[in-house]
Amino acid sequence: MAQLLATGGTAVVESAHQARVGGVLVGMGGVGKTQLAAHYARTAWQQGELDVLVWITASSRTAAVTGYGQAGVELLGAEEGGLDNGGPERAAQRFLAWLEPKPQQAPCRWLVVLDDIADPADLRGLWPPSSPQGRTVATTRRKDAALTGGGRRLIEIGLFTPDQALAHLTSALARFGRHEPEPELTALAEDLGCLPLALSQAVAYLIDTGSGCRAYRDLLSDRTRALADTAPDTLPDDQTHTVAATWTLSLERADTLRPAGLARPVLQLAAFLSPNGIPATVLTSQPALTHLTGHLAAAGPVTAEQVQLALGALRRLSLIDHSADRPHQAVRVHQLVQRAVRDSLTPAQRHQLARTAADALLGAWPETERYTALATALRANTAALATTAEDALYEPDAHPVLHRAGWNLGESGQTTAAANYFEQLTEATTRHLGPDHPSTFTAREGLAWWQREVGDAAGAADTYAKLLQHQLRMPGQDDWSIFATRYSLGHQLGKAGDAAGAADAFAQLLEHELRVLGPDHAHTFVARQELAWWRGEAGDAAAAADAFAELLRDRARVQGRDHASTLDTWHCLAHWRGEAGDAAGAARAYGELLDGQSRTLGPFHPDTLSSLDSIAHWRGEAGDADGAAQAYAHLVDARSRTVGPDDPDTLTSLDRLAHWLGKAGNAAGATQAYGELLEARSRTLGPDHPDTLTTERNLTCWWRKAWGPEADAGQ
């Protein structure tokens, strides 16, 4: 402060030959404006820089006029400066006139401090004059434009930085021989939001009570205790208000500004949200406007424009920071201001405001996410609300915004965080509402979903098992919902490696669906297919093949031979016949599947070509080398047409063709195929690639088999 006023900075003149202008210290209650002004005044007086020092408490016009009048009596005498000579206003004007520089008189170096200006209008006509020898310092919580008139400059006084707060706590405690661990003091500074007044009173409390820093932090975090309970019995440093009471007058004043009566309910709503930034759309959402209208019922519905005016009033009283250029973090409220506001509410008011804040967040949440910053801010505000609202968000049920925040977290790509979130939400709903409450069930559904998305199949299976237990325990549950849970349980058990458990789960699903839907329903067929598949995965390939053969007949009868589901079952039948050791049966099944796919998908569809590949494979496994070679020849031709002769799949098929030509005794054909493959791989992979070198060795082998042991593959 001294440096700012001495060098011009934001407040005063550059040199003594210019008229000095006033500096107005602006900031929220508790940042130390008065202490800073007092320190500056005391230092200037002690260093002999002043002839006259006047300190006036300017909390009202009457107080300012009285202060000027009293100064006039002391400086000018009772006869000239007294109140009897024209009343208080005239006395104040005579004193201000005396401060004006006069050429015939010796210079008088003066400083006037106007402390705690409550309303700039109170000082209309009462600001000290500009003077080469005079200076003025004012303190206020207001940020009105009127404060900068007459060349005055605002000096924003903010919070301590974390380092400054730590240094203050350390040195203040050390003066009393107290030393606390630095991590605890750092955490205490953070808990108090680095507010100087709160830090000072915390030190006084620790000294007066002998409590430790950790105990004080526990007291501060105890939400059953009011903020006033953390104040010392005797306030330090001539302070007149506790932290809890320091903003009361500011809020009362803000509530009188246009639109009268709206600032307080707006701040009450903001007190439950994030101190680090509330999106403007939350406080102007329809649920918020409906709630605020209840406080101004006689004035008609509250509009978004009126809310903006109320935010402006709160900003003018330094109760909030309001920045329109940061729409997703437009409103910031110090955490202790929020705490003090919440402490002033009745339990019923706290409950209503918490639910309203949740409604407002939900009302501001867009259906389609376009702005990541907005979603992040809404989640942060939901997290803050969950902390400040305590039980209110679970009475009478878990508020939907709790679920919305979790799903939004996962949809933003933070799947692990979403799984952790829903795990905590499930624990919270269970604790508040019980394991069988619908809100608990919904939270557990979210947990299972995101466990599945993150790849925690075992965790998801366990969660689905609990969901199923809940559904079977509660009467009147929807069969379709139970079907879905049983299906997800079986699927996740299988993914977790428990094939037998998956088969059991699908067996129970099948029994349920047979009872409710009948044997020929599409969902029943799906359950049969999953059961057969997981029996195969559990080690009984023959039983799986038999089950798929039976299911294939039923699907063909009900859905038709060329239905996509029927073709899928055909594929599974062929697969498990092969796994059961029936290579010939697998080849036949793939052949029948190939016919159906050729009719429905076309001969060159990727699925059709995949079946042709399987036919060739199982023919070879069945001992039919000629048949395998013929199938691979068709596959090479088809893939050359569709994806090109140099595609990796085409070259793999050409490799298999050469292999089975050789196995069929056609060494010359194998030599020709390996020659074509070597040329293609040399061109696409390079001559030194491992696959190219392997092909070269195979070519040499079959060349010698075709032309004799003395043949040279290079000729």
UniProtKB/TrEMBL annotation:
Q: Which residues form a coiled coil?
A: none
Q: Which SUPFAM superfamilies match?
A: P-loop containing nucleoside triphosphate hydrolases, TPR-like
Which residue intervals define the domain NB-ARC in the entry? 25-167
**Residue span(s) of domain DUF7779:** 263-349
Q: Which residues form the signal peptide?
A: none
One annotated GO molecular function: ADP binding
Name this protein carries in UniProt: Uncharacterized protein
The organism's lineage?
Bacteria, Bacillati, Actinomycetota, Actinomycetes, Kitasatosporales
